Amino acid sequence: GIANWYQEANEMGSVCVMSLTENFVPWSPSFFIGKQEYKDLVSCVLLAGEGMKEVLVTHGRISPVQGSVVGYPTFDWGKSPFRDWFLSKKQFRSRYHISEEKKMILLATSFNMADININEWDEKYFHWNISKEDAAKQIDIVRKFRDKTITYFSRLLKKHSDWQLLVRKHPFEKEDIYLKEWCKHPQVTFVHDDELYDLLNICDVLVHWNSTTSVQAWSFNKPTILLQFEEADMFIEMYKGDPVKNFVDPKNGNYICRTYEELVGAFVDVLSGKTIPELQERTKRAFVSQWFYKLDGLSSKRAADVICETYANSKQDVRYEMNLFDLLMGI
Description:
The chain is α/β, with parallel strands linked by helices. 41% of the residues lie in helices and 11% in strands.
């Protein structure tokens, strides 16, 4: 296991640094905290924000001095000069033959659970920490949610010929249902294999259902719409746990849409260029401050600085030499 790996690395004189910067935000510690303690295994743990550090320290997984808050390096892509490396709107429109007057709406789906065959649960999903009975309920909920999402967007596209829907399914989700509905639709472009950051750079708005892509969109200063239909209430109820202390709920950083009418209203505001409500902006700032430190494009640099400082302060003697061939062979 991972503990043995770190132990062997320490015995070879390695300076062990663990990076937990890319982890999702746990609204309940039970969804994140494992059994392993890292106190005696690593010299330093890189963390995205103070919220994650507090969770790990409170539950005894690391000591306060081990945790170094550096931010979320992935979010650096949304700031210059990194952002300039991604496709421009002009380049994207040219690639997919989308006219300049079209508003580009990115739908990032996360309905992968809808494609699970419950009859294979015990064989393929035994590692999930939920019962087969609860899993069956969740699968049914997600399928209904996905069907409603597709129905609503089909209605919207009929009424707005100047909209182009960019569909990017979750990597673990099947494409079949989207192809069945939209494979020949002139206002739908499938972008499953496109680089996410290209899409965030060129879209006018991101639509999602509790996806981590929302915070990534914030790093690109893009407005986000959260689908929160009534089916979501049942799903959230099933996932309730002991909340993280002083947890900042990111939902209010989005336009929250529980009905078709609210979805229409959100698009009217966003695509007309209306100023994003202050509640959303305030929530984004508070959530980022708690969990990701800063969206300033400098997280990678802070991480590198901590690694260099940890190595410089280490008093371990390297007792194992590894040449390039060994490294390439994975020895």
